[in-house]
Amino acid sequence: MSYDRCETCGEFGWLDTHKCPPIFYFKHEDWDLEPREVRAHSFSDAAEKFARIYNEDDGDYVLMDEDTEVIISDGNIEKKYIVSAEPDIYYSSREV
Ligand SMILES: [Zn+2]
After folding, report:
1. Are β-strands 68-73 and 78-83 bridged in parallel, bridged antiparallel, or unpaired?
2. 13: DSSP letter
3. How much distance in Å is there from the Cα of 14 to the middle of ligand 1?
4. Element (H or E) spanning 24, and its range?
5. For residue range 61-77, what is the model confidence (pLDDT) as tens digits?
6. Could you report the per-residue pLDDT of 14-27, keeping only the tens digit for each?
7. Exposed end of the chain (fewer CB within 10 Å): N or C?
8. How far does residue 73's CA lie from ligand 1's centre (Å)?
C-alpha cells in the first residue's frame, strides 16, 4: 500500500483503494468558451476549486477584491455560483 498523491485528481490517499471524484466542468466569461474540467466531490466543491484556480491565475488574486460568477456542470445539469476568497490571518508575537 502506498499513500501518495493521485496523478489524475491531485488528492492524497491510499492509491490501491483511491477512487477519483467525478469530473465537473466550469465555464467563466473571462476564459475560453470551452468548459474546463475539474475533479470534485460536489457542485460547490467544484466551484471552490474553480475559485482557487481563478484567484491564483497569473498571481493576481482578483477574488480578494471582488466576487465572480461561474457556471458549474456535471455534464448534465448546470448550476451558477458566485465565488469569492478571504485570506487567512496568522497572528504572531515576539517579546521585545
Ligand atoms: Zn484520484
Report:
1. antiparallel
2. E
3. 10
4. strand 23-27
5. 888 888 999 999 999 99
6. 989 999 999 999 99
7. C
8. 19
**CA 5 to ligand 1 centroid distance, Å:** 8
- From the list 16, 20, 15, 18, the residue with the least C-alpha distance to 4 is 15
Can you say whether residue 83 is alpha, beta or left, with left for phi > 0 and alpha for psi between -120 and 50 degrees?
Answer: beta
Q: What residues contact 75, with CB distance under 8 A and at least 6 apart?
A: 23, 25
The pLDDT score that the predictor gives to residue 60 is: 81
Rounded to the nearest angstrom, the distance between the alpha carbon of 93 and the centre of ligand 1 is 40
- How many whole angstroms from its chain centre is CA 19? 18
